[in-house]
Model the fold of this input.
Amino acid sequence: MDIAARQTKLGQAGLLMAAFATPFAVMAGTGGYAQAQPVEASGNSIFVIGAYQPTTDEIDKAVFFKNLSRFFDEYGLGKNQMAALLNVSRPTIYSWLEKEPERIRESHRNRLSNLLSVFDKQIDPSLRHSTSSFLQKRLDPIVRELWRISSSEDYSLDEIEGALKSLNFKLSGMDRSKRLSEALKNKKPLI
Done:
């Protein structure tokens, strides 16, 4: 009986140490949480350590910010162009870039993911870097059509796909022209 009492006392001391040491170790940078859960009816408990479980809203925001940064990085779009494509104001784009908003509308999340999927599908990956400079050509029929579609609240993905169909041809022409201009700029005159 003396051995059982001693083991119980050691077990209680171990639990007491875990109760005070574990939360500090977990909170010291692991990003986890500690939660006491009952083991048996006698009141003893253990600490379960696990990773932080983000909410659905936090996951949606993270996906939104990832998609937004992909648009800026891969396609080189400016803030004005993003605001026009997403049909929002520039201050809204700035707050999104600072990751400040409390919530992001479902319509904005859907619009961004839909536009990104259409751009990914329609534009050749090797030409994506030229998209921003092409979208600045407001007199081009493709650009006018894209801005017209994106300015409406109700648009279909088929409309955007149709507007972007011949974009690869124009982007490749711009890319070839840019490379030729750079090559000619580096040449020495013959005379």
In short: Residues 2-27 form the longest helix (26 residues).
